[in-house]
Amino acid sequence: MDGRTDQQRADRPRPAGHSPGRPAPGRGPDERGPDERASNARGAGVRGSSAPVSSARGSSAGGPNARPANAPYPAPGGVPSERSGTRPGQPPLVGRHDVLQVLEESLDEAAAGMFRFVALAGEPGAGKTRLLGELTAGAVARKLAVSSGRAAEFEQEMPFGAVVDALDDHLEEHLPELGPATVKLLVPVFPALAAVVQGTMPTVTGNTPVARYQLYRAVRRLLEQLAAEDGLVLILDDVHWADEATIELLDYLVRHPPRARVVIAVAFRPAQASARLASLVEASLQGGCGHRVRVRPLTEDEVAQLLGPDVTAGRCRELFEASGGNPFYLEALARSDEPLAEGPQEGDLPPAVRAALHMELSGLSPDALRVAQGAAVAADEFAPALAAVAAEVSDPVALSALDELVARDIVRPGAGRFRFRHPLVRHAAYGSAAAGWRLAAHARIAAYLADIGAPAAV
C-alpha cells in the first residue's frame, strides 16, 4: 500500500534495476486505489464533536479484539495478486485488477510499437506509487527500459523538474546519437549534457512559442533515441507538483507522440491537479493514446484479505472504518503498537502517518495552518465561522485560509461547511497545535456557542 509521502519517497533507497535513468519508484503495500482513490473515506469522526475522535478504536485493554499491551500488530498477510512483484516483508498487492489490466495492456501495446500515456489518479496513500512499481516490474519482464522521476513540491520553479529527475543521470553516462542542433536545444534543460558535450555551459533558451516548440521537438527526439533499442517506459510520479513547463511538454508529447515504443506513466492527486494537467489527461483520452485510472480505496473485503486470516472480523471492520480503505493509513494503523485515543483524549498517530501528515501541514501558510488547527479543535465537519473563532482570525482571513486548505486537499467543501479529508488529517492538525493553545481554542468555541445560544455540539 504504498501511500508514501513526498518526504518518504525522497528519502527512500532507490532499487537498482533495468533502467536507463533513475530506478523506478519503490513499492509499498497495496496502494491500489489508482488515483489514490479519491477516498470517500468515512472515518471514525462524528459530526459535532469538539475534539478529534479516534481513528482506531477498541484495541486497548479488554474486548474480544484486544491485543496485549505493547504487542506489535501482525504484518498484513493477504493473498498476493497474480502478477504482484511483492518483496519479502512487503504487504501483498490486493485487488487493483482493473488497474493492473490497464498497465499490462499499455505495456503490450508499447512493445508492439505504439505510444501510450497512462494517468493514475488517487489521493495520498492510495497506492499510486506501488502501482507504478508494478508497471516497472512488467516493463522489465518485457525487456523494456525504464526511467523514473518525480516532481517535488519545493522544486516547482525548476523547469522540467520531473523529466530531468528521470533522465539526467542516464544522459550523463550514455549520450544518445543526437544531432548538434538537438543537443544545443537540450543543454539548457539537462545539466548532464553540459558536462558531457565538451563542458558546454547551459544557456537560457528563448521563451517564445517557437523556441518552446523547438525544445519540445528536441525532447521528443531524445525519447525516440532512448527507446530505439529497448523501448522506454518513462514514469513521472507526483505530477500534481509538476511545473508548468513539464505539463506543457507532456501535452505536446500527447498531441505529437514519439515515433517509438514509449509509455509515459504519470501519477497525481486529483484534488491538487491543475486545470492544465486535467486537460492534458483528457486530451490523451480523446487522442486515443491515453488511459486514465482512478485508484480507489480498498473495499472491506480487500482490507480483510490484506490483513490476513489471523485478524478477527471485528478488528478488520475497525481498521477498515478507521483507515477509510486507504492502504497507507491501514498498514500504519495495523502495525501501530499503540492505538489512537478516543474522544477528548489526545492519542498518538503511528509514526509513519504522523510524519506524512505533518509534512503536508508544514507546507501551509501560517494563517492556513492556524485555521486548520482551529477547525481540528472544532469538529470533523465545521462551519467557517467556528474555525475562525477557534483560530482567532477574522472571517475574511479564515475564508482565504480555507481556500488554501481546499487547494491542498486538507479539507473538502460541502454545503456551507467543510470537512477534513480524513479523520487522521484532523488528528494530525489537532496534534500540531500547542496544548495550551488548544485549551484556549476550546474555551473560545464554548464561549462563542454560548453567545449564539447554540448547543455545545454543532
Automatic annotation (TrEMBL):
Keywords, in A-Z order: ATP-binding, Nucleotide-binding
Q: Basic and acidic residues bias located where?
A: 1-14, 28-39
Ranges for the region named Disordered are 1-94
Q: Name one GO cellular component term.
A: cytoplasm
Q: Does the keyword DNA repair apply?
A: no
What SUPFAM superfamilies does this protein's entry cite?
Answer: P-loop containing nucleoside triphosphate hydrolases
Question: Per the record, where are the segments of Low complexity compositional bias?
Answer: 43-70
Is the keyword Heme in the record? no
Q: Name one GO molecular function term.
A: adenylate cyclase activity
Q: Which residues form the Orc1-like AAA ATPase domain?
A: 92-264
Recorded protein name is Orc1-like AAA ATPase domain-containing protein
Name its species. Actinomadura logoneensis
**Upper taxonomic lineage:** Bacteria, Bacillati, Actinomycetota, Actinomycetes, Streptosporangiales
